[in-house]
Amino acid sequence: xxxxxxxxxxxxxxxxxxxxxxxxxxxxxxxxxxxxxxxxxxxxxxxxxxxxxxxxxxxxxxxxxxxxxxxx
Length: 72
Fold this sequence. Notes:
With 72 residues, the protein is of the alpha+beta class. The protein is 42% helix and 11% strand. The chain is built from three helices and two strands, in the order αβαβα. It has helices spanning 2-8, 20-25, 48-64, and strands at 14-17, 30-33. A two-stranded parallel sheet has the order 1-2. β1 (14-17), α2 (20-25) and β2 (30-33) form a beta-alpha-beta unit. The protein is globular.
């Protein structure tokens, strides 16, 4: 996966996914698990409040997690 290649280059990544167990199993990156329909990882269209909350969670995880495989 692309996240793994980016991590190997020394750049931290966060994956927002509807399948956090699978992403965590493969240790692709730091993982934010969400429960939205596929294709809407940051929430439904026009739900700015939820989209912002997901983005803030991803940034918080990026700042706090020290290695791939961390999960929020």
